[in-house]
Amino acid sequence: MDYEAVIGLETHVQLKTKSKMWCGCANAFGSPPNTNVCPVCLGLPGVLPVPNEEALRKTVLTGYLLNCEIPRFAKFDRKSYFYPDMPKNYQLTQYDRPSTATGFVEFEFNGGLARVRITRAHLEEDVGKSTHFERHSGVDFNRAGVPLMEIVSEPDLTSSAMAYEYLNALKDILIQGGVSDCDMEKGMVRCDVNVSVRPVGTRELGAKIEIKNMNSFSGVRRALDYEIPRQIEAVKRGEKLVQSTRRWDDVAGITELMRTKEDAHDYRYFPDPDLMPLAPTDAWLAEVESLAVELPLARKQRFMRDYQLPVGDAEVFKSNAALGNYFEGLARQSKNPKAVANWIINNLLAKLAAANESRSRGDEAQNENSELDQSLLQSALPIALADLKFPPSALLELVALVENRTISSSAAQQVFTEMFATGKSPAAIVQEKGLAQVSDTGAIEKYCDEAIAANPNPVADYRAGKVAALNSLKGQVMKLSKGKANPALVGEILERKLKG
Ligand code: ADP
Ligand code: MG
Ligand code: ZN
């Protein structure tokens, strides 16, 4: 009998807000321990939480981005348990009345489109962080009370590869929507993986096994690549799997049992008496919905359709939203969007990467002398599109110069390099460096006559029917013109002269 995997993911995402969920403390990563704290997020007795509207807005926005329903009633509940990094001894979360419900995510998978249903995306709060030293442990409450959104999927995923693609698609959507920076290195996205197996062709779900607290997408994939065969082998041996929670050991590459259902918590959920239920108005919902951006996949498909871009180009603009906006701003005004895309992808990106690399190399050298220089940290930021010395219109001008054959494509490379470095206009650079092609037929006729006179062999070959011999004559004419003759005109004139 063959078995298949059934996977559902609970993805926790830190929201991009200035302040925490219930107080005015900064929602910032990397501050010294316990510096972004106050009586509210330290859970001192008698304090009152005040909900962060921006966090609510971003949760509901996520609902719109994930095609969810937005209930007109939501509330916060206390989930009670004890853990040293959770000062209130309960976590505030939306238990049975979340801010969003039933949606879906679509993404490319296996050459087609996959759709995973979303059960809900609800708002809760992050906890502090414990660190275990050799002789003692420390708790940092900077993260306590940071707005955390949990996106729960239906058990629609069927493989580790699919789970991986789903997570990446979700991340792209949240970044593009401005909901979260999704910086994995800073722990902004964490995932609980639920997985069971069942005989192929059956509907009933097997015992759910949850792998807690995964902090990388590749970790999720590896954990599933271990866990799925483990479960299949177990049931094939006749073992009965039971609902349980496991831990992923990233070094050993295995999952280990933490606890079974019998010792599951009773969280004693109840509505938080300090927080009013939420009843978003039409006006507020309309405002949030207006913030919903185009999804990355939709943008990719639209760019292929509207600008006839090949899939590779559209993919670049899908995963780099700012670059996509830059492209589209130009493509709308251009008769040749593909040429615009080529300049951006083949030339601009390469130049930006090189400039950023030399900048960061320069910084490293200087860093040895001065450790905490703010201006250095600033300059280590990547050079962005907004910092370009030339205006976007210059790129259109450049494309037009090639298109109307004022300059050759190799001259255009020179022009681009110069305009990237100095911000000068393409026309000025062409003028200054004398790069304009010669399109004056009289001058080209003269070069052609010279080339024909000086190269009797290719001329004879061509007249004898060897069409390729024309290339060598073309090359001669280009040489005589110092590369400036318009190659298309050269071809036409040579042919006319040789046939005549
Ligand atoms: P809990 O209440 O314990 O959190 P839920 O039923 O809400 O459990 O499901 C949590 C996650 O587990 C969801 O993403 C869901 O799709 C997934 N899930 C539920 N049952 C199974 C199962 N049998 N196999 C795999 N995933 C499951
Ligand atoms: Mg769970
Ligand atoms: Zn606080």
Could you explain the architecture of this structure?
Helices cover 41% and strands 18% of the residues. By secondary structure, the protein is an alpha+beta fold. Strands 4-5-8-1-9-10-11-12 form an 8-stranded mixed β-sheet. Strands 3-2-13 form a 3-stranded antiparallel β-sheet, with no helix packed on it. A two-stranded antiparallel ribbon has the order 6-7. A hairpin with a 4-residue loop joins β6 (129-132) and β7 (137-140). α13 packs across α15. The protein is elongated, with a radius of gyration of 31 Å. Mean pLDDT is 91; it is low at 366-381. Residues 6-10, 152-155, 194-196, 205-206, 208 line the site of adenosine-5'-diphosphate. Residues 20, 23, 25, 37-38, 40-41, 145 line the site of zinc ion (ZN).
Give the number of helices: 16
Fraction in helix? 40-55%
* Intertermini distance: 79 Å
Query: Structural class from helices and strands?
Result: alpha+beta
Cα-atom radius of gyration: 31 Å
